[in-house]
């Protein structure tokens, strides 16, 4: 099993300065560089204190200068919001200057406020995302890009630089809904799976993807499918549950609230919450991995079978959780 960290830059209550938020995250990333993690995956968000990182590519450059071993992933570049050629250039530049350490993850996004501010009609977002991903990959593979699509047209454009990795960095697409999974499988893209679906939902979607992938004639062997999970680790079960509950409450309040999903039901569908159910309890019952280090090891071993977990993209819900996971859980799998 490989391990990465889904790195948010959360600013709860705006209690500290953003400089402190960034420095703590960078200190953690330097620890990751020397302790056996595969990659840090940077989460792009706009106009929210849930995570203040509007440019994962710029942040990735800063991380590249402070690390030697860690791969630098995007989870995700919100491709629908970019001019695709600018996106291709930025990711390729990061790959060159990091010595070929980029894992490129692309996603559609879901927040209506982001689409509104960037002038993207939400109903166009899926098609724009898909076309942008295809353009980026084609621009890396081709000496000169020629493209005629629904939203973009290019003639004889030499996109420079080309990535250091040949033919390009490994590509993942975020896929939470079945239509997104089906599109990725049809195109042969590897998926990465969200931190908000339950373990059981992830397992079912993973099986669906594998079947769709082979159905379209693509080989599924050897693919690493990062599965993002919130992690809470403490010396006692009670302390871990308190961390998990606090983190789930923050997530529900800052990320999954009616204003974020109004007129754009993708994320609320992903949560699959029964009417009248407690969304925070849903996280504790089947989304967050939490407990003592020994209990977390047991859970991961079980989930490796139950949901074919071979790449854990962990999102620690506290700094203490990260420390205990790094010191007492990670070594059990390396």
Give a verbal description of the structure.
This protein is α/β, with parallel strands linked by helices. It has one domain: Luciferase-like domain (TIM Barrel, Alpha-Beta Barrel), CATH 3.20.20. The chain has 13 helices and twelve strands. Helix 3 packs across helix 5 and helix 8 crosses helix 11. The protein is globular. The termini are close together.
Give the topology, please:
Elements: E1 2-7, H1 18-33, E2 39-42, H2 56-66, E3 71-74, E4 77-78, H3 84-97, E5 102-107, H4 112-117, H5 125-141, E6 145-148, E7 153-157, E8 171-174, H6 178-187, E9 190-192, H7 199-215, E10 227-233, H8 237-254, H9 258-261, H10 266-271, H11 279-286, E11 289-291, H12 293-306, E12 311-316, H13 319-329
Parallel strand pairs: 1-2, 1-12, 2-3, 3-5, 4-5, 5-8, 8-9, 10-11, 10-12
Antiparallel strand pairs: 6-7
Distance between the termini: 8 Å
Give the ordered list of helices and strands: EHEHEEHEHHEEEHEHEHHHHEHEH
CATH topology (fold) name: TIM Barrel
CATH architecture annotation: Alpha-Beta Barrel
- Total domains: 1
Task: Give a quick summary of the entry.
This protein has 334 residues and is α/β, with parallel strands linked by helices. The protein starts with a strand and ends in a 5-residue tail after the last helix.
Summary keywords:
single chain, 334 residues, alpha/beta, TIM Barrel, two-stranded antiparallel sheet, 13 helices, 12 strands
């Amino acid at each position: 099993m490989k391990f990465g960290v889904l790195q948010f830059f959360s600013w709860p209550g705006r209690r500290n300065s953003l400089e402190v938020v960034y420095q703590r995250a960078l200190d953690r990333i330097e620890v990751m560089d020397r302790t056996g993690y595969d990659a840090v995956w940077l989460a792009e968000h706009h106009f929210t204190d849930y995570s203040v990182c509007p440019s994962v590519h710029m942040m990735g450059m800063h991380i590249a200068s402070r690390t030697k071993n860690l791969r630098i992933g995007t989870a995700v570049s919100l491709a629908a919001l970019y001019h695709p050629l600018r996106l291709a250039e930025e990711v390729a530049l990061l790959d060159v200057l990091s010595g070929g350490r980029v894992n490129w993850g692309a996603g559609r996004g879901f927040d209506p406020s982001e689409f509104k501010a960037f002038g993207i009609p939400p109903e166009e977002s899926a098609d724009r995302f898909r076309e942008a991903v295809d353009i980026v990959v084609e621009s890396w593979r081709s000496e000169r890009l020629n493209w005629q699509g629904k939203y973009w047209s290019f003639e004889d454009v030499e996109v420079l630089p080309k990535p250091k990795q040949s033919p390009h960095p490994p590509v993942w697409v975020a896929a939470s809904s079945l239509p997104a999974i089906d599109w990725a499988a049809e195109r042969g893209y590897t998926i990465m799976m969200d931190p908000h679906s339950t373990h059981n939902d992830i397992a079912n979607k993973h099986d669906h993807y594998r079947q769709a992938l082979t159905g379209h004639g693509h080989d599924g062997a050897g693919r690493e499918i990062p599965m993002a999970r919130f992690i809470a680790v403490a010396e006692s079960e009670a302390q871990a549950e308190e961390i998990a509950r606090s983190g789930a409450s923050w997530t529900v309040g800052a990320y999954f609230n009616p204003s974020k999903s109004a007129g754009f039901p993708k994320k609320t569908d992903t949560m699959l919450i029964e009417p009248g159910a407690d969304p925070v309890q849903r996280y504790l019952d089947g989304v967050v991995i939490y407990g003592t280090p020994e209990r977390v090891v047991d859970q991961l071993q079980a989930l490796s079978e139950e949901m074919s977990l071979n790449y854990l993209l962990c999102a620690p819900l506290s700094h203490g959780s990260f420390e205990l996971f790094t010191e007492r859980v990670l070594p059990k799998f390396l």
